[in-house]
Structures are given as C-alpha cells and as structure tokens.
Write a structure and sequence with these properties.
Pfam families: Endonuclease_NS. Keywords: Endonuclease, Hydrolase, Metal-binding, Nuclease. It comes from Bacteroides uniformis. This is DNA/RNA non-specific endonuclease. With about 200 residues, this protein is α+β, with helices and mostly antiparallel strands. Helix content is about 20%, strand content about 20%. It contains four helices and six strands; from the N terminus they run βαβαββββαα. The protein has helices at about 15-20, 35-50, 160-170, 180-185, and strands at about 5, 30, 65-70, 110-115, 130-135, 160. The longest helix is centred in the first third of the chain and has 19 residues, at about 35-50. The chain is globular.
C-alpha cells in the first residue's frame, strides 16, 4: 500500500557504500503514498541535491546546506482509503487513528527545513546564511510520477519561513546558530534568494 519513503535520500549519501546503505534503515523510512513519494517528494530531493552539487556547469550554489526532514506524528492521515495502488499493488489505507494495518503511523504532512551557507559572503556573517522551510500535505492526487515529476518551480508554493515551520512542528530548527543569526534567517525567506 505505502512506499518506504526515504527521509534522507539515497542520492544524498553516495560518498560511500556504507553511508548509502544506512539510508535504507527503517529508521530513515516513512510510509508515503506512491505518487507522493515518486513524483512530489523526489522533486524536493533533487532540488536540494542540486543546491550543493559540484558536478554541474556552475559549481555548487551553496558551500553547505543543512537539512532536516520529517513527517508529522501529531497530525496523521486518518481513515485514509487510497485511490491509487502502491508499488506493491495494494491500496494504501489507514485506520481511525492514522495507522497502517502493520501499525505504522502515516503523517498527514511532511516538512523540510533548509539552512544554506555561502562562505564568500564576508561582509556580514549573518548574510552568509539563509533558510527556508517547506510544508507539504501528504496526498496521492498531485498527479506526478518518477517519470513525470513536479516542476521545481512549483515547489515554491510549499515554501514557508522556518519560524512558521517551527510553529507547525514544535521543533526548534538550527538552534546551534548564534541567536542573532538564527532570529534573522528563521523569521522570513525570499524565494528569489534560492536557485530553483
């Protein structure tokens, strides 16, 4: 019924065989609807990967990015009856508590928090950081697949500030930054600051 959706993408850990194998641990999996995983979530994975890739014609866009991803456990997909079979041919379904028949909680929303750093911004350390959040409803009617994924520009519709994402999730992202940087980068975002 549900795909084993990677939270940390396999492609993000290709620097060693051992690191890549770790992305297949169940602790890195979350039940995702097939069309969400294959067409929607994968677009976000590819977008994040492109922001740090060094093998493109322009070099990497950012020196480092820090990414936190997850699904909501306080907001579950309750009484869900799938309209499209999963990769295993089974219709996905959840019970009145939001759990699969195997007892796994199924998030109603997925989120991504991104902090990017550019070392060449030497004028002011605060300007060398920028952050953006994404809040995505877990649905199977987006109409995307691995072969026909979401257009990267369309991911902007899910963009929110980190402060707003923290309010929705209850998680304090990027708390190890100095407060003056954290306050600045988490309070707002500008889509034109990002390489879509």
């Amino acid at each position: 019924g549900f795909d084993r959706g990677h939270l940390c993408a396999s492609d993000d850990r290709s620097f060693s065989t051992e690191a890549n194998k770790q992305t297949f641990y169940f602790s890195n999996m979350s039940p995702q609807l097939n069309s969400f995983n294959g067409g929607y979530w994968v677009t976000f994975e590819q977008l994040l990967n492109s922001w740090v890739r060094k093998d493109n014609a322009f070099g990497s866009v950012y020196d480092k990015i820090y990414v936190a991803k997850g699904g909501t456990l306080d907001k579950l997909l309750i009484d869900y009856k799938g309209t499209k079979a999963g990769g295993d041919g089974v219709m996905p379904a959840t019970d009145s508590n939001g759990f699969t028949s195997k007892g796994l909680p199924v998030p109603q929303y997925y989120f991504i928090a991104v902090l990017a750093h550019r070392a060449n911004q030497l004028v002011d350390i605060a300007t060398s950081y920028q952050a953006i959040g994404f809040w995505v409803e877990h649905r199977d009617d987006y109409g995307y697949t691995f072969e026909h994924p979401l257009n990267r520009n369309d991911t902007k519709a899910n963009a929110i500030s980190i402060d707003e994402l923290e309010s929705k999730t209850g998680i304090d992202f990027f708390c190890n930054l100095p407060d003056y940087i954290e306050d600045e980068v988490e309070s707002s975002y500008n889509v034109t600051d990002w390489a879509w």
